[in-house]
């Protein structure tokens, strides 16, 4: 297809990781459609999540912290599509917006930075994270650890670690790889730390009504990633959970079926429920049933985390 006469506008947050991911999408679209450099212009948009750095996201209350401003730009057509870390995209999206494609998923694991393993952390060590899931999984393995609030982009968090605000921190391997820092820290096996739903996946959204734009984006969809991430998001949806809830889930496509493992866990790590199913891509009824089973089995203090 010839390069379009006026460039498409690709919206993204302005963090270093977001810009790398936006450029990955731009390159994939150019390659798929044979476009030259002028075809796609990158437009950065500041989101609420970027502006508020000093509080836990859970305190901010509102949802859509990373998406609202990009949604608005899609809506007023100042951008044609938006690129997101799927992990930061709230479960229930506005009806007008479609997830048109996902890039192939990166390493889904978390990396521990500051020690060689969870077992090697000093007694009572402070671990910087703002993720309820990571905090809960760490405390389950090591109740003696102290969780301290770390927010901000990858470099901000590494800076806090370097200044001694904690003995260790956890970051997604995917982000470190994309920022060309794959050698920082040690990956934690998923058996110890099942990742967040959608971790490692990059998605591209557009207005559902723009069928032409949707088709151009869908051409670069990596179907196994899409199916897996959509299954993980279906679990979150039935749990009534978002990125602030202590939920871990990982779907893996083995060529025939999707194996979905899921876990809900109390903030202090003292209570958890987990389960695993095999499903056909797109068949979300068993995912809903798994979510209900986890909630049914959960002791009241754990179930209460999902009341809302
Ligand atoms: N919540 C922030 C966020 N959103 C996506 C990533 C990393 C990339 C990914 O998981 O796809 C990160 C940083 C982190 O969790 O270390």
Automatic annotation (TrEMBL):
Subunit description: Monomer.
Domain Porphobilinogen deaminase N-terminal: residue ranges: 9-213
Family annotation (PROSITE patterns): PORPHOBILINOGEN_DEAM (PS00533)
Modified sites of kind S-(dipyrrolylmethanemethyl)cysteine: 243
UniProt family annotation: Belongs to the HMBS family.
Enzyme Commission number(s) from the entry: 2.5.1.61
Entry annotated with the keyword Transferase: yes
SUPFAM superfamilies: Periplasmic binding protein-like II, Porphobilinogen deaminase (hydroxymethylbilane synthase), C-terminal domain
Note in the entry: The porphobilinogen subunits are added to the dipyrromethane group.
UniProt-recorded name of the protein: Porphobilinogen deaminase
Limits of the Porphobilinogen deaminase C-terminal domain: 228-280
Pathway recorded for this protein: Porphyrin-containing compound metabolism; protoporphyrin-IX biosynthesis; coproporphyrinogen-III from 5-aminolevulinate: step 2/4
Family annotation (Pfam families): Porphobil_deam, Porphobil_deamC
Gene Ontology molecular function terms on file: hydroxymethylbilane synthase activity
The protein's required cofactors: dipyrromethane
Gene3D superfamilies: Periplasmic binding protein-like II, Porphobilinogen deaminase, C-terminal domain
Organism: Sphingomonas colocasiae
Functional note: Tetrapolymerization of the monopyrrole PBG into the hydroxymethylbilane pre-uroporphyrinogen in several discrete steps.
Keyword tags: Porphyrin biosynthesis, Transferase
Signal peptide extent: none
UniProt cofactor note: Binds 1 dipyrromethane group covalently.
Source superkingdom: Bacteria
NCBIfam families per record: hemC (TIGR00212)
